[in-house]
Amino acid sequence: MKYFDAHDHLQDFPSEDGLGAALRAAAEAGVEGMLCCGTCPEDWGRVLELAGRDARVKPCFGLHPWLTAEEGWLQKLEEFVRRVPCCVGEIGLDGVKGLPGHEENFAAQLELAARFGRPAVLHCVKSWGRLLELLKAARPDRFMLHAYGGSPELVKDLAALGGYFSFGAEIQDPARARLRAALAAVPQDRLLLETEAPERGAGPAAVIEVAAAAAGLLDRPAEELAALTYANGLRFIGELK
Ligand SMILES: [Zn+2]
């Protein structure tokens, strides 16, 4: 079986040994694609290096809404996007922990993704109305909501704009009824699964447990769900593969 981890931060593994072990475990588990998301100019070089070392690792470059960067960062991002087949992300809106100015940073990066036809990897917390407005203005070709936390009702509007929806270990929690309803509302060709490794000590291989949980919740065979989300991951990255 093949798996696709639609969102991780391999550059954040505390040691080379830990990263090496996680990538070996991922290979044994059948994780054949991973979106490795940069979050600030300081880690973009490392993300590029990791992608150059392992063809399964697809690079994403962006400035996260919790972080700031020195002047000139947007031009630097444009150089990466111009030079490297990549996604733009992790970028987004955060109504709880977003820093002042993050909305402008997000709008500029979304415009960049649209201009270069790159898929965008989005973080969104409590900013759904504004997100819809900015998506309608920028019109990126396609985007994914990582760790989707919006309502089940919003799925249709976001999907119509080109949205994919990614879910992580949180779906394993029976208390998350609204999240589970959102999972069930996603069109099957837009569903993705993720680990956010190395958060909570997980590696990309943990996508297997997420896939098993999603299969149970959607009442589908695990093999079928793995194949579906792997194919969706490849379609999302498109020409990067
Ligand atoms: Zn992330």
Explain the overall architecture.
There is one protein chain. The protein is of the alpha/beta class. The protein has one domain: Metal-dependent hydrolases (TIM Barrel, Alpha-Beta Barrel). The chain has 9 helices and 8 strands. It has helices at 16-29, 41-53, 73-83, 102-116, 128-138, 155-160, 177-185, 207-218, 222-237; strands spanning 3-8, 31-37, 57-61, 87-94, 120-125, 143-145, 163-167, 191-193. Strands 1-2-3-4-5-6-7-8 form an 8-stranded parallel β-sheet, with helices on both faces. Strand 2, helix 2 and strand 3 form a beta-alpha-beta unit. The radius of gyration is 16 Å and the shape is globular. The mean pLDDT is 97. It binds zinc ion (ZN). The site of zinc ion has 6 residues, from loops.
CATH superfamily: Metal-dependent hydrolases
> Which strands sit side by side, in order, in the main sheet?
1-2-3-4-5-6-7-8
* Beta content: 15-25%
Bound molecules: zinc ion
| Helicity level | 40-55%
**Mind telling me the C-alpha Rg?**
16 Å
| Low-confidence runs | none
Shape: globular
Count of all domains: 1
Number of DSSP helices? 9
The CATH C-level class name: Alpha Beta
CATH architecture: Alpha-Beta Barrel
Largest sheet at a glance?
Answer: 8 strands, parallel
Order of helices and strands: EHEHEHEHEHEHEHEHH
The assigned structural class equals: alpha/beta
Number of distinct beta strands: 8
- Amino-to-carboxy terminus distance: 18 Å
Q: What is the CATH topology?
A: TIM Barrel
- The overall pLDDT, averaged over residues, is 97
